[in-house]
Every structure is written in structure tokens, then in C-alpha cells.
Amino acid sequence: MSRFLKKVNCVQILLFPHSKSRLYRSVTSKRTNSTAAETKEVDVRLIRNFSIVAHVDHGKSTLADRLLEITGVIKPGAERAQVLDQLQVERERGITVKAVTASLNYVYNNEKYLLNLIDTPGHVDFSNEVVRSVSACQGVILLVDANEGVQAQTVAVHSLAKRNNLVIIPVLNKVDLPRANPENCKGQMKSLFNIDPETVLSISAKKGWGVKELLEAVITRIPAPTVDLKSPFMAHIIDTWHDRYRGVLCLAYIHSGRVEVGSAVRWSGESKQHVVKHLALLRPSEEPVDSAVAGQVVMVGCGPKGGGAVGSQLVSSDHPAATAGAGAPAVKHMVYAGVFPADQSQHPMLSDAIKKLGLNDSAVSIHPDSSPALGQGWRVGFLGLLHLDVFSQRLFQEYKAEAILTAPSVPYKIRVKGAKIIKQYKGEEVIITNPLQLPHPHHIEEYYEPFVIGTIITPVEYLGSVNTLCIDRRGAPLPSSAVDDRTTLLQYILPLSEVLVDFHDTLKSITSGFASFDYQDYGFHPSPLVRMDILLNGVLVEELTSIVHASRAEPTARRLTDKLKEMIPRQMVQVAIQAMVGGKVLSRETLKAYRKDVTAKLYGGDVTRRKKLLKQQSEGKKKMRSVANIKIPRNTFIDVLKR
């Protein structure tokens, strides 16, 4: 009988591969959980939660690899570098996009410590990942390239760590390279951050020099989390993602109490209860556990319908009313773009892909949108142009979804005259993320433009060129300071629209790649903005409406009409392409019509016959133009609108 059952089970696994994977998961989970139940509960005194923060390409992921090797997670000399960079887009671009957690075990002074490492991105477009990561930490490793010195993003992440009252371990990386100048970098850190040079550690993450001493410094310098084990369970969510079989999984930092598999929990502000079905440590692969205590960073799963949002709180069922905890701060989106399916038949598939990716990337905002030219789609908010590029690339790589992205635009604010008369606006000040939402200019009292505070660190020999660039981009200078005798820190108040397009590339070009740039939101301020309309033979094309600064109106109009002349296919009638602001035409291009040679049949004779035929053709074209409806193919709209 037992042999027969074994054969039946084998047949079932062969015929139903999905059942096999689920059966394997459940059996493996039970076995691992039984092992985990025998292990001793983690002592809070032996927990250390820390992040690695730095400027772009200063060696965060390489240092994370060495830490994984020392703690035995991976073997030394493994072929695959940057283990925590798990996304395909991260490996292709060589940057970190998602903050990834790894729970490491390390024995120090005969005691076994649990080290929760969070590897964070360095680019300003993914600063939201850094903000969420440090909310679960008590300290950070501030990594500085010994060749490049302190950069703009280094200043930003140091300020973030100080605001969160975190212990900072200053570290110089890449000290093995010939151009390294550790003493100069220590002087910069002393000048900018008032960091004692004696406390700065020197390492080479690539070769492993000094990494073990750094790991021990994490244990000795960073304190254990301050938590309350006796209070009811409460945790806040720092990341979420979707699993095909288990639904929404959450990465949570536990503030108080303890949680077990089978515990009854609920989301703050909701009364519906859920049961904890999955609990695991990320090492960085999942290691299921039976329970977790305050101070730990764990993965929690409550089934397909038990998912929450990043920043929300997960509490025990008997926990009192939710209080304002350490949730994620509100995200301020810098760029908006339209996302449309290449074909409307692909709308359901693209919708599902965007929802799942939006769950994993909490920094985006997604709202339904529609366009007469492109059909049904979404208006998506991003933190920057690189964020937009990575989002579209992940859509294709992870979900095989092809999308059309329109040209990015920044959000504006307007003050409306007689807001009560215009029903779609509830208040006097309205945020405009799509130029199509703009009311008639007669109803707009004032425009407001978003500004940022830009921080630039540049060698002194490029100071003149950098100042010229910032002033050309309508920047207003703030007090500057010297980093050392060869480097200067500049700050400018800049319009966001001038920063996003090509400011960073131009800055790198004029400074031979030595300058670095970072920016922070400075809010909305009054600005002389105008609404630019595009007309084809006097007919308004709403999809091409845009908001521009008054000083940039004419060059923008010329550039847009030239592009439209190249993109729009020729018609049977002449097409006048006009860029207009407030009833005034700033630029015009004429697209010539197809013309039949009506005089081809003439062979000599009187010239009046030729003139008569040309006159008849001219009158016919004029009549046709007066009644013609200029139809622009969808592909042309895509070419004009897309980035």
C-alpha cells in the first residue's frame, strides 16, 4: 500500500509542476521551522541594525560582498559580484536601485551577534530607499571614496543620518589605489562634518583590507536597538513586494513585542484581522523562523489578501488604537510622465504589471489617465529621470510589458480666479501634473513653479564655468564654502524644470567629470509661466499643450514647431504649424502639401492656358484646406510625445 501511495505522489508531482513547487515549499518550510523552533531566541543586546550610505560608485555593494564573505554567507572569490544587487537593471547599469537587507551572524568576544545590514542606493533619484532604510537602523557606515573625496550625495546622506540621530562610522574606501589621498579626505570630513580624523577607518572593499575591523567597529560603536519586549507587537513596513504563490510579502522592523507564525495581527487603522503565515530572515535568501522579537528586521507574509503599504504599521490584534509611528515620510514627486500601452489590447496586462511594480517601488504615484491620441493609460510620478528610466526598464524585463512613455514634465501650481465657479477645482491653489488639466488662462491668477536647492562640489578651477551654467539656468546663488584648498561647495536655488533635462550631463562635461550634484526640494514659488498651445491649421491640438517659462517661450516654440514639421506626415493640403502663447504666434512652420503637376499635359501653346490650370488648382486647394480635417496618425503622436 505504501509503495502504491509513493507512486501516486510521484505521478502527481510529474503531472502538476505547480503542485510540486507548492508541496516543496510547504515541506521545506515545515522542516526549517522545526529546526528554527529549537534555536534560542535572539537576545536584543546582540542585535545591530545598520546601513551603508554613500555617493554613487563609492563601493557600497562591494563592501557588502566582503561583509557577506566574512560572515560566511558567500564563499570568498565568488564569481558573482554585488550579490545584493539582485535586479537585472542593477547589474546592467552598475548601480543599486533597491535597498536590500541581509541578516548576518558574527561571533565577537564569544558572543553571537545578529547584524542586519541594509545596502542602499547612492543616486539622488532613489533617496526614498535610503530614507526608509535608516528608519530601521541605529547607525550607518558613511563610505567615502579616498580618490574622489566628499561628494554632493555624501553631504545629503550625512545630513539625513544626523536628522535621525544615528551613530555615524566614517570610512574611507579604495585606499589601495594610486590616486588615493586619505589625509585630504579626512580633512574634508573634518571641515564639512566636524568628524575627528582619528575615528575614520581606512579600508579597501575590493581587496578586503580593514573590513573585519570595520565589522567589529559596527558592534562596538553602534548601540543595540531600544525596544520594549513586554508591550504588544508593533512593527512598521519598510518594503513590500509580490510573490506569485504567497501574495504580498513585507519587510518589517519590529518596534515592540514579539510575533510568531500563526499570530493574529491587523493593519493600523483597520479592524480586519490577518494571520501571520510566513516569517523569515533574509540572509539574503529567505530563512524561515517561528518567531521574531523587537529590534529585528524580518519578512512577514499574511497571505494573498493580507498586504499593506510601505510606511504603515502592523500590530497585534489586541493592540490599542494606532499611533503615529515611524512611518515613511510623504514622497515628493519631481517628474510626471504618461504611461500608455503600445496597443489598447495590452491594457489589462500593463495594468497588472504596473500595480505589481508599484507595490515594490513605493516611490511612484499612479493615477489613471487618458489621451485622445494614445488611449487609456496612467499618469505616473517619479523622483527623477533616472527613476523613470529604471521603472520603464523593469516593466519590460520583469513583466514583459511594453509601454509608451510621454515626455516628462514637472508639477506646477496655479492660483485660480473664482474657484467656486470652476467645479473641477475644490480649492484656490491647484497642483497641475498634466498640462491638459490647465483651465483657460483667463481663470488663472498666478503660476507657481517648483524650485530646488542644488548642492555642487567642484574643483576651484571650474568655478567660473559652474557659476555661469547655474545663472544661465535661472539660478540664484546661496553662500558657498571651501571644502579644502582645491574644492568648493556651491549652493544655488534652481528651477526644477531647468535641472531635470540635461543639467547633470552639462555639469559633468564642463568640469571634466570632477563635479558632483545633488538637490533637495525647496517648494513652489511664483514664476512668470505661460501656457503654450500648438495649432494645426488653426485647430488646437490639446495633447501638445505645455507649460514653459516666459523667458524660454520663443526658443521652445521654435524647437517644437521644427520637430513637428519633421514628424507630421505630408497631407493633401498645406498644414500650418503654429506655437501660440496668449493669442500671439511665437513660431510657425509650413508643411507643404502634395502637389499634382496639372500642366504636364500641355505641350506649348499660349501661356494663359497654363495660368488658368494653376489658378484652378490653387482655388481647389484653398477650398480643400477650409473643410479638411487634419488627422495625425497615432505613431506620429507617439514620436512627438515620447521622451
Q: Would you summarize the structure shown here?
A:
The chain is α+β, with helices and mostly antiparallel strands. 30% of the residues lie in helices and 31% in strands. The protein is globular.
Walk me through what this model shows.
Belongs to the GTP-binding elongation factor family. LepA subfamily. Its main location: mitochondrion. This protein has 643 residues and is α+β, with helices and mostly antiparallel strands. Helix 9 crosses helix 10 (385-399). The longest helix is centred in the first third of the chain and has 22 residues, at 17-38. Residues 1-39 and 322-327 have low confidence and may be disordered.
Strand content: 25-35%
What is the highest CATH level, the class of the largest domain?
Answer: Alpha Beta
State the CATH architecture of the largest domain. 3-Layer(aba) Sandwich
- Low-pLDDT segments, ≥5 res: 1-39, 322-327
GO biological process, one term: translation
EC number: 3.6.5.n1
Membrane topology: Peripheral membrane protein
Catalytic activity: GTP + H2O = GDP + phosphate + H(+)
Show the helix and strand layout.
Blueprint: H1 2-15, H2 17-38, E1 47-54, H3 60-70, H4 88-93, E2 100-108, E3 111-119, H5 127-134, E4 139-145, H6 152-163, E5 167-173, H7 182-193, E6 201-202, H8 211-221, E7 234-243, E8 247-256, E9 258-260, E10 264-267, E11 273-275, E12 278-282, E13 286-288, E14 291-293, E15 297-301, E16 313-316, E17 335-341, H9 347-360, E18 365-371, E19 375-382, H10 385-399, E20 403-405, E21 412-416, E22 429-432, E23 444-459, H11 463-472, E24 476-482, E25 487-495, H12 496-500, H13 503-510, E26 516-526, E27 529-536, E28 539-540, E29 546-549, H14 553-567, E30 575-581, E31 584-591, H15 607-627, H16 634-641
Parallel strand pairs: 1-3, 1-4, 4-5, 5-6
Antiparallel strand pairs: 2-3, 7-8, 7-16, 8-15, 9-14, 10-11, 10-16, 12-13, 12-15, 17-19, 17-20, 18-19, 21-22, 21-23, 23-25, 23-26, 24-25, 27-28, 27-29, 27-30, 30-31
Helix pairs in contact: 1-2, 9-10
